[in-house]
Specification:
Ferritin/DPS domain-containing protein, Ferritin, ferric iron binding, DPS_DNA-bd, 154 residues
Length: 154
Amino acid sequence: MPVDIGLNDDARNTSADALRVLLAETYALYSKTHGYHWNVTGPRFNSLHTMFETQYNELWLALDEIAERIRALGHFAPASASEMVEPATIKPDNGIPDADTMVENLVKGHEAVSRAAKAGLKIAEDNGDAVTADLMTQRAAISEKTAWMLRANL
C-alpha cells in the first residue's frame, strides 16, 4: 500500500537515507559504548561502568526510534549489523583502550552522531519532513549533552 503522509517519494527517500546514516553512527556508538562498559578498568571503574551502561541503554532505545521512523517513511530499516554500520564513520577499536581513551573515543562518537543528526536535520527541513527533523534535533541535543558530560570526566 502506498505511503501518503504528505511527503513525495523523493522527500521520503532522502529523509530515509539521512536516517540510515544516523542509525549507522548510533549503532556503531552503541556497540563501542557497550564494549567499554564490559571492559573498563581502573580507579574510576564503578562510575564509568555505570555511566556507560546508562549511555548504551539510551542509544539502544534511540536505534528503535530511528529504525521505526525509516519504516514510517515506507522503507525497510537495515536488518543486519554489517548493513547497519556500513555508512558509519565511527569505527571499532583494535584492542581495549584505557579508561581515558575510552572516554575520549565516546566523546568523538557522540560528536559524530551529532554531526549526522544535524546533516539529517537540514535534509528533513528541506523536505518539509517535520517529524524526521524533530527526531534529528532530539538526537543532536542528546549527543551533545552526553559529549559534554563525558568531557567533564577527562
